[in-house]
Amino acid sequence: MRRQEDIAVGNVVGSNIFNILGIIGASSIAAPIHIENINWIDFSYMTALFIGLWVIIQKGSCITRREGSLLFSSYIVYLCYLLYF
């Protein structure tokens, strides 16, 4: 299984999608989930981060150290925002 990054990434993405859709879907059948207010700042930040990651992935087949550092630092900025606001 060495040097098969595609399988590893597919495994991680697939399990995350299943956890989000399958588990939340099954538990909402048992007890409906009500979303009362959405924190639009968090939603907007994560959407922008996802779009940035998508652009990086579409540009090339690998994420460079610079791009990884950019993504990691933006995550740290988000964590600092959560901590102080």
UniProtKB/TrEMBL annotation:
<protein>
    <recommendedName>
        <fullName>Sodium/calcium exchanger membrane region domain-containing protein</fullName>
    </recommendedName>
</protein>
<dbReference type="InterPro" id="IPR044880">
    <property type="entry name" value="NCX_ion-bd_dom_sf"/>
</dbReference>
<dbReference type="Pfam" id="PF01699">
    <property type="entry name" value="Na_Ca_ex"/>
</dbReference>
<feature type="transmembrane region" description="Helical">
    <location>
        <begin position="12"/>
        <end position="31"/>
    </location>
</feature>
<feature type="domain" description="Sodium/calcium exchanger membrane region">
    <location>
        <begin position="3"/>
        <end position="83"/>
    </location>
</feature>
<dbReference type="InterPro" id="IPR004837">
    <property type="entry name" value="NaCa_Exmemb"/>
</dbReference>
<keyword id="KW-0472">Membrane</keyword>
<keyword id="KW-0812">Transmembrane</keyword>
<keyword id="KW-1133">Transmembrane helix</keyword>
<feature type="transmembrane region" description="Helical">
    <location>
        <begin position="37"/>
        <end position="56"/>
    </location>
</feature>
<dbReference type="GO" id="GO:0016020">
    <property type="term" value="C:membrane"/>
</dbReference>
<dbReference type="GO" id="GO:0055085">
    <property type="term" value="P:transmembrane transport"/>
</dbReference>
